[in-house]
Structures are given as C-alpha cells and as structure tokens.
Amino acid sequence: MEILKTKIALETFVSPLKAIGKKVALVPTMGALHNGHISLIDLAKQSADIIICSIFVNPTQFTDLKDLEKYPRPIEHDLEMLKNAGCDAVFMPSVDEMYPKEEHWHIDLGPAEFLLEGEFRKGHYQGVTQIVKKLFDAVKPDIAMFGQKDFQQVLMIKNMVAHFHLPIQIVTCPIIRESDGLAMSSRNIHLLSLDRENSLVLSKALKFVVAHFNDNSLRKLEESAKALFELIDGVELDYFTIANGDNLQPAQSKNEHHLVALVAAKVGKTRLIDNMIIK
Ligand SMILES: Nc1ncnc2c1ncn2[C@@H]1O[C@H](COP(=O)(O)OP(=O)(O)OP(=O)(O)O)[C@@H](O)[C@H]1O
Ligand SMILES: CC(C)(CO)[C@@H](O)C(=O)[O-]
Ligand code: BAL
C-alpha cells in the first residue's frame, strides 16, 4: 500500500493508472478508522480498480475547537486496517499541504445547508465541501464513497458536485452498526461506560419511528421519539425529525416519496448523529 503525503506524490501515483484506463475510487475519511470505513473500502473495490483512501482531519469543517483538538488520530492502527482491507494507496496530507495559503470558500449549497447539522454546526458544510473539492481535484476519482450515517453531508456533496459539474459518481453506503445498534463512529471512543449505554437511545428512537410509522401521525411519532430522550439523564437532544430525504425539510405528509428520520444528541460530552431511511 502506497503512503502519499503530497499532491505531487499522489499525482505521480494516480496519473499513469488513469492513463491505462483504471477506474479510481476515493474514500475520504478523517481517520480513526472502524468497520464503517472498511465497508466503504469494500464497496469501492466492487466498483473500481484502484482504491485510494484519504485521511485528513479538516480544520475548516470544525466549529468547535475542542472537538478538533481531541479528534482521535491513531494513524498506525489506521494504516494497518487499510492494508488489511486491500486499499491501494493512502493520501494523508498535512494541513499546510491542503491549505498552503489563506483562502475564501463559499458556494451555494441550497437551503438544506442551514438545516439540522448546518444549524448546530454553522459553516460546517462549507468546510466539508471545500476539502472534498480539494480532494477531488487532487485525486480526480471516477467514483467516491460516502456513508449514509452523514446523510446531510452526502446531499451537500452531491450539490457541490452538481455546482462544479464534476464527472464523479457519488455513492452512498449503508450505516454499519455495533451489534446493539449504535452506529459506528470515530467519536464513539469518547463514550464512557454510562454514556455508551445511554447512546443506544439514538438508534432505539429511530427504530421506534420506523416500526410505528403506520400507527401514528408524523408529529406524534416525533413527539414519542423525543420523549425517549427526556427519560435519560446525561443525554441532550439537538434534534429529532422526520424529513423529506431529498431536501431535508420537515416532512409534511406520509405520502412524500423519500422520508428519513434523523437525530443528533450530546451523550455526555460527545455529540452523536444517526438516521434511518423510512422509505
Ligand atoms: N457507521 C458507519 N457506516 C458507514 N459509513 C460510515 C460510518 N461511520 C462513518 N462513515 C463514513 O465514513 C466516512 C468518513 O467519516 P469520518 O472519518 O468522519 O468517520 P466517522 O466515524 O463519521 O467519524 P465522526 O462522525 O466521529 O467524525 C464518511 O463518509 C462517513 O459517513
Ligand atoms: C468527508 C470528510 C472526509 C471531509 O473532511 C468528512 O466530513 C468525513 O469524514 O465525513
Ligand atoms: N463524519 C462527519 C465529519 C464531522 O463530523 O466533522
């Protein structure tokens, strides 16, 4: 597995492969890898010849400095996991490599930018699309894999790709969960034992809404889900919503084509997100 730290090294690796017609997949990550990330690598292998994983903790998408400072960075373990998964190359640039000079970035991502995560992490999706565009420019992949766990992120990245007319296929990969239902996430490492137990309320509330979808109105379902959070000390709900899966506006009718339940909550000091597609 190649370890590439500069854009020049990346280009030297990838250009000859593209020149002979190899299909290149990019799996962007911030490291602290788990089986959710590995599932993205596995799916990439099914649709491309060369798999490149990027590891970069992108400062411009963090709205909370403490969150950035304590983001886990177990790089040796990550490299071992990627090698075992059959990844061809890892792109792990420094902050200076990706941001050599101060720059302004602002693109129109549509009204969904300001909802949900965009409301609680203001400017987050400008930072995410800024770095993903840089990664796309550096790798020039044919296809890029993203997790459904970051549902809104996939929507924002698709909007960015449309904005720049990039010829890149964006694939949404299913959420990988622990056996008790908790969605795998790099930040789960911060959950102390009681928090770990309490964290199950996210997936339980989502499952409740999916299971009882036909029994009640949308607003009643949301109320019942929210009530589950009130029962637990040490969990602070940011939002629980049933939304239109195409634009993330609160769903107005059960007849809408795509519906998704989305949740974000602070469990102890750790903020978690999760979602389940209803239809
Ligand atoms: N449980 C999961 N199942 C499938 N994909 C996942 C899962 N967790 C993360 N991903 C995807 O992996 C990619 C990289 O995510 P990232 O490195 O931020 O990891 P993470 O676990 O989401 O970390 P955190 O949410 O704590 O930042 C993203 O596209 C993300 O959606
Ligand atoms: C897509 C991404 C790698 C951009 O930094 C990040 O937001 C993530 O890990 O989901
Ligand atoms: N997985 C999304 C990246 C972030 O939380 O910043």
UniProtKB/TrEMBL annotation:
Specify which residues bind beta-alanine according to the UniProt entry for this protein: Q61
A GO BP term, please? pantothenate biosynthetic process
Q: In which pathway does it act?
A: Cofactor biosynthesis; (R)-pantothenate biosynthesis; (R)-pantothenate from (R)-pantoate and beta-alanine: step 1/1
Membrane-traversing stretches: none
Residue positions binding (R)-pantoate: Q61, Q153
Q: Which residues form the active site?
A: H37
Entry keyword annotation includes Cytoplasm:
yes
Xref: InterPro entries: Cyt_trans-like, Pantoate_ligase, Pantoate_ligase_C, Rossmann-like_a/b/a_fold
The reaction(s) this protein catalyses: (R)-pantoate + beta-alanine + ATP = (R)-pantothenate + AMP + diphosphate + H(+)
| Residue positions binding ATP | 30-37, 147-150, 176, 184-187
What the record says about family reads:
Belongs to the pantothenate synthetase family.
Q: What is this protein called?
A: Pantothenate synthetase
